[in-house]
Every structure is written in C-alpha cells, then in structure tokens.
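Anyone opening a protein record will find just a pair of labelled lines. A complete record is shown below as an example.
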Amino acid sequence: MKRGAQGKYTTISTVGEVARAFVPAPLPPSPGLVWSSEMETQFAAASSALGRLDGVAAIFPETSVLLYSYIRKEAVLSSQIEGTQSSLSDLLLYENDEAPGVPINDVQEVSNYVDALEYGMKRLREGFPISLRLIREIHHILLSKGRRNQKQPGEFRTSQNWIGGTRPGNARYVPPPAEKLMACLDRLEKFLHDDKQKTTTLLKSGLAHVQFESIHPFLDGNGRVGRLLITLLLCADGTLQQPLLYLSLFFKKHRNLYYDLFNQIREEGDWEAWLAFFFEGIATTADQAFQTATQLLELFKKDREKINTIGRAAPSMRAVHRFFQSHPVSSVRQAHKSLSLSIPTLHAAAKQLVKLEILKELPNQGKKHLFSYKRYMDILNKEDELDLK
C-alpha cells in the first residue's frame, strides 16, 4: 500500500552545504497495515519457522553447542555487510590466540559483535527491557575496542551523518538532524514498549528495524545494532529462547532489494512490501538454521559411533569430541583449560580423531596442535553458498 512519504524532509546546513534530512514519522504506520491473504500466509510461515527453530533446544542435548557457533556466524555475516573481510575461521582462530595472517582489525570488530550480542542477552535475562539505554550499552561494546573507538561508542550522535556518497549533498540518504534525534528515538522506544497499542513481536521487529535504520542514531555501527535489535526483540518476549536466528545472510544476499525497500517506505509508505520481504527472510533463515541443527546432530551421532569402536582410548576421545562440538576450531591447549585431561592424553586423543577423519590438524606458522572439526565447519559454511530465494 502506498501511503505517501513516511516522514518529512527538513533543510540542514552542514559541512559547508545545504542538504535535505529525513525525519521519519512515528510508528505504527498510518493508515494501518493492509494484510493481504499472501502477507498473512508469509507471517504464519515465519511464525511457524521460528517455532521450529526455538524447538531445536528440545532435540539438542546442549543448546550451547549450537549457540556458540551461531552467534559467531551472525557476527561474521553482519560485519561483512559493513565491509569487514574476516571469516568464521578467522574469528575462531582469534579467540584461540592463534590468528596469524588474519585481518586483526576486522576480526576485532567481529569479536566485538559477539560480545555485544552476549551482553544484550545477559541483560534481557536479568529482566532489563529493550530500551534506549540498553541500545547505547550494546553500541558501546560494539565500538569500544578496535579502529572505530573514536566514533563515540555508546553515545547518540550530536552531529549530522549520512549514508553513501562523500557528503550530505550527494548521499544516498541523510538521517534526521541531531537536534531532532532524541524526539525520534523517544517515539521509537514508546513503540517498543507498546505505549499506544500492542504489536506482535515478529511484526514489531520488522517495523522497528526500519525505523532504527532511518533514525541512524550513531556515528557508526547503526547497521549492526539494527540487526541485533531484531534478534533481541524476538528473544525478549520468548519467541526465541536463544539467539539462533541470523538474518544477515539473507540481507547480504539481497542487499540491493533491502535498501530499495527502505526507500520505498520513506518515499511511498509501502510497508507491506518490506514486511513481505522481512517475513520471507525470517522463514527462510529459520528453516535453514533448523536444518543445519539436524545435520549437526546427525554428524555428532555418526562420529560418536566411530569413536565407540576404538576401545580403551574412547573415553578421552569422546571428551575431546564434545569439546570440539562447542569449539569447532581450537587447540589442545584450549581443550586442556576445559577438560581434566593431561596435555599428552589430549594430544593423543586429537591425533586419533584425525585418523578417524573427525578432526583435521591445521598448519599454523610452525606451531602445531591446532585442529578443526572440518565437517562441522563445512556444514556451517555451506549456508553461505545457498541460493536463498
């Protein structure tokens, strides 16, 4: 539905030139959403897919096994959208203090994302609501370490920013001026708290994501915080018990459409087109995450069966196998910190797992004893190659 522009332009003067900045209208959309039968079907499919994904905890002996890698996978993909070059393997090596040849600045940013998401989840479990304060705290963690720490971590901007282009005059989009920022954010926070009317969480997360990106309240890191906001909203009300959903892969594969739909909302008020895309992304990525979880369960089962044929060495090998389920790229030294086994025993067990083609030893500039659970990593990385529709 084309409602007309969802906000107003205001003339600004910044960096020596005049430009137009967009001030978004408050949520929810007005007039209200038009729910076609197709959109209702898409919403139902997304809700069902989230339910199946949330149920993965019931089939996984330890949800933390899956959660460890999924959080890091989302961190990598979300950061890649912002231009970093780090891979999942780079991040896992970095966390093991084994990162030769990886882009350290990039991997630090990805690591910050992991810390920010884990912090947000911790605050939610403590009963803290999603609020402007929590958003600022998450942003502080996201930018406080690394090359972007001069971009006012944890502080809403006090100057003008823009998206695309070299200056506001040729930018793709200019967000609200700083003096109108807090009014926009206050209205967004009220919407998040169902101030005027209750909005279902799945719908709220889709609407709030666009609104946050339109406000663009920070000098840097807005995209990553905006994507984090989706997952945190879904976890805050219990739609998801754990942050196992990562939409960054879907957004990355459909990047041009993603930005075009934002512009359609601002200029024409077509919220329905965006929500159809958003619900499709939720359903597609949630289903894929569920399929990945079942593939990993099958892999772990088959590998345990291999180990059980070994004999006396099986108990130590099972312990090392369990460790690598939670840390698919790691070292004997790191395993020693978690397991009550000696270094020689761990090394022998890892070598045996290599012979069984469960682990693969990685070269590391002359250092040894760094291993990868190769087929686990293959399953995770295979998702990047999918032709998501």
Observations:
- Residues 7-291 form a domain with the Fic-like fold fold (CATH 1.10.3290.10).
